[in-house]
């Protein structure tokens, strides 16, 4: 599986290539799915470009995406603490959603992660457990009673150094252990995005790519679109997997 990470917490300061409005997001997702993405992770944005868990914005974003892509492509969103400070506020937002994503990511090192995950499960939204390197997320997740109930684990390597990201990835996977037997999606960011994606290929793990994680192609050139990143990502993952075999 190659998941598309559409826009992340990026803003207009990152360039016009980053889709922010529901319509721009839907266009970008449709192109990336046509290029081979099989799952979607998006950050709904307010009109001023800020991440939000607002039910109105979430519904508009989901509606726009689902009008453009097959129903077989799952669409997920963030529940990051920066989008709605305070665990109780995030839970309240989730309970107020009028349209539901297929899944939502929960960063396990953030305060209130268990409550946020439980609120999602109560609403029938699958949970992606975001486990960031350099945090206590892995240890907290190993002890979590909700661990066996998540859809998958997002092993998120936050080390942007391309020379060190692979080692950080191996260390994170070791700390995760069996990950409650759940599937693991391994990915990096910025300079570490492509080395970690190739490692995921060698290990046969799912991965993700998109403008949230990197603005650049493997050769260092600026990416023109999410579709261009997905095309490169599927090629790099497959080549790494063939090299392993």
From TrEMBL:
Pfam families: BKACE (PF05853). This is 3-keto-5-aminohexanoate cleavage protein. It comes from Streptomyces violaceolatus. Signal peptide: none annotated. Gene3D superfamilies: Aldolase class I. InterPro entries: Aldolase_TIM (IPR013785), BKACE (IPR008567).
């Amino acid at each position: 599986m190659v998941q598309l990470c559409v826009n992340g917490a990026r803003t207009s300061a990152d360039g016009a290539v980053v889709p922010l409005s529901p319509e721009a997001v839907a266009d970008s997702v449709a192109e990336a799915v046509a290029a081979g993405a099989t799952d979607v992770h998006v950050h709904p944005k307010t009109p001023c470009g800020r991440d939000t868990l607002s039910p109105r914005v979430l519904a508009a974003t989901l509606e726009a995406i689902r009008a453009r892509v097959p129903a077989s492509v799952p669409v997920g969103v963030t529940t990051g603490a920066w989008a709605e400070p305070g665990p109780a506020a995030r839970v309240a937002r989730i309970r107020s959603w009028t349209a539901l994503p297929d899944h939502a990511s929960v960063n396990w090192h953030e305060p209130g992660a268990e409550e946020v995950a439980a609120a999602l499960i109560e609403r029938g939204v699958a949970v992606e457990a975001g486990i960031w390197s350099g945090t206590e997320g892995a240890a907290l997740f190993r002890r979590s009673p909700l661990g066996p109930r998540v859809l998958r684990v997002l092993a998120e390597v936050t080390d942007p150094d391309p020379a060190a990201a692979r080692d950080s990835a191996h260390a994170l996977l070791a700390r995760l252990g069996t990950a409650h037997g759940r599937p693991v999606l391994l990915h990096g960011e910025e300079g570490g995005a492509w080395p970690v994606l190739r490692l995921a290929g060698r290990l046969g793990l799912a991965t993700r790519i998109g403008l949230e994680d990197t603005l650049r192609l493997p050769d260092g050139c600026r990416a023109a679109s999410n579709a261009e990143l997905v095309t490169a990502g599927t090629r790099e993952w497959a080549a790494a997997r063939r090299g392993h075999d």
